[in-house]
Task: structure prediction
Amino acid sequence: MPRPSKAMTIAGSDSGGGAGIQADLKTFAALGVYGTSAVTAITAQNTLGVTAVQELPPDMVAAQIDTVMSDIGADAVKTGMLANSGIIRIVAEKVGEHAIDNLVVDPVMVAKGGDRLLQEEAVEALRGLLVPLAVVVTPNLPEASVLVGRSVESLEDARRAARDILDMGARSVVVKGGHLQGDAVDVFYDGKQLRELSAPRVDTTSTHGTGCTFASAVAAGLAQGMDMEDAVVRAKEYVTAAIRSAFPVGGGHGPLHHFHATW
Result:
């Protein structure tokens, strides 16, 4: 029997099940990858917003990573909510210690409802310590704005931001266009080509966890041996179908339908 592909998510927990490690593990499973996790923070949230956050000590995050990597290992690792600079520093340290090459960095900063998930003091640590280790960074427009230090509100802004984030040391970048008007256009840049991936916008409130899901789908593809561009294209198709197939959950921004292909 062939060895299954494995991926780890290092991220926060979403008690509502739509984003965070819950969305990541659903995505890994839906795409045929065995998923593990290192929890960075516990959030009390639902489709309406976040009501409480408890950040874990960095040494506990490190212990989770060490324990999983020493036994199970990972063909790709995805980071999501890292909360503070102490956690970012320990994650960067462990990426080097365990020689993790396929690192997907989703620079989670703000929840769908506007609640902040990354302390302001941690932005520089994210930019300087983790982005240079990434095989791909996947910011949305507001996150790209923070990373590059200027407003990113148009497709041309997204193109410029992708180039600037690559200059920070990442090997490739996807600036996600969910906040644009009209079709959802993502900008992929790997230093050689700039490609725009477009999908018709779906009229729905079921968009909670789209960023987590997209980054995890990219990580799943890399874990399975896909090249970066193919992994990004499949992730875009998967997320679009998961949004289109979503059913109402809760009274706010509901989750995607991660298992749309099998239900």
User: Anything to note?
Assistant: The chain has a mean pLDDT of 95.
